Amino acid sequence: MSQKKYKVTLTQDEEKLLHDITDRGKHSAQKRKRAQALLLANEGRTDEVIADRAGMHRRAVEDLRRRFVEDGFETVLAGKARGHRPRALHEADEARLIALVCGPPPEGRIRWTVRSLAAAWVSLEHTGTKTVSRETIRRVLKKTSVNPGRAGNGACPRKGGEFVGRMEDVRDGYTEERDETRP
């Protein structure tokens, strides 16, 4: 049998903590599985046996051993950080995008397309995001029920100067500081 590259060696305190996790307390199923796998790995069991007893895949056990050696006990026990990506466009930028859609289309076009919106976004000033993907633009437009390809667009019924001026007022309302004296 070949020697394991990543060997799990637990201290008595770590072993006691893992026994507490597997035996009692409110812990997630994934945390219990990781604790059980670490205890079995500490006993010198093979990855196949650990995977079978802990209800994991063999490759997951190998990764658990590697992370234990490289990242440490606490990191492995807590699991991988599964954060979400921050929003590409914030509310003020979304309002700017809607105002752009409601404005006149690019020269030589009848209406906006998602590609032309993405290209025009780069030239806008006062935006927190300089580039934005077509998919992000599509999601924002879908969320707000704005369809740049439809003539009777619900968000932009009129394209006159008065309407665009009101849209700019709404957009500016997102960027202004809140005044407690005004409702």
Explain the overall architecture:
It is a single chain. By secondary structure, the protein is mostly helical. It folds into 2 domains: 67 residues; 85 residues. It starts with 11 loop residues before the first helix and ends in an 8-residue tail after the last helix.
Defining traits:
183 residues, mainly alpha, 9 helices
Topology (elements, then pairings):
Elements: H1 12-23, H2 29-42, H3 47-54, H4 58-71, H5 73-78, H6 91-102, H7 114-123, H8 134-143, H9 161-175
Helix pairs in contact: 1-2, 2-3, 3-4, 6-9, 7-8
> What is the CA-CA span between the terminal residues?
75 Å
Strand coverage percent: under 5%
- Gross morphology: elongated
The percent range for helix content is: 55-70%
Q: How many separate domains?
A: 2
Radius of gyration, whole Å = 28 Å
What composes the largest sheet? none
Order of helices and strands: HHHHHHHHH
Mean pLDDT: 81
Q: List the total number of helices.
A: 9
Tell me how many strands there are: 0
Query: Spans of 5+ residues with little confidence (pLDDT < 50)?
Result: none
Structural class label: mainly alpha
Compact description:
By secondary structure, the protein is mainly α. It contains nine helices and no strands.
